[in-house]
Amino acid sequence: MRLSARNRLKGKIVEVTKGQTTAHVRIDVNGTIVTAAITNESVDELGLKVGMGAYAVVKASDVMVGVD
């Protein structure tokens, strides 16, 4: 698969939590956890399971910066 998105973070799935319609998929990317909210249907179609490799793909038109 090829994507136009340049922000692809390779990691390992550490948690998949399904809700009524939406699932939270947590991916460990070199010690940093990235959480994606996707449909339960997508979890099933992709066969997402804890321990498997996956990419967190970030596609956004804006990036916000915050400081304390």
Overall shape: globular
Major sheet: arrangement of strands: 3-2-1-4
Poorly predicted spans = none
Kindly state the percentage of residues in helix: 10-25%
Radius of gyration: 13 Å
Overall mean pLDDT stands at 92
Let me know the CATH homologous superfamily: RNA polymerase II/Efflux pump adaptor protein, barrel-sandwich hybrid domain
Structural class: mainly beta
The CATH first-level class comes to Mainly Beta
| Subunit arrangement of the protein | single chain
Beta-strand content bin: over 45%
In N-to-C order, the SSE pattern is EEEHE
CATH level-two architecture? Beta Barrel
Keywords: Molybdenum
InterPro entries: Mo/tungstate-bd_C_term_dom (IPR008995), Mop_domain (IPR004606), Transp-assoc_OB_typ1 (IPR005116)
Domain Mop: 2-67
Protein name: TOBE domain-containing protein
Protein topology:
Elements: E1 7-18, E2 22-29, E3 32-39, H1 40-46, E4 53-58
Keywords: Molybdenum
GO biological process, one term: molybdate ion transport
Organism: Enterovirga aerilata
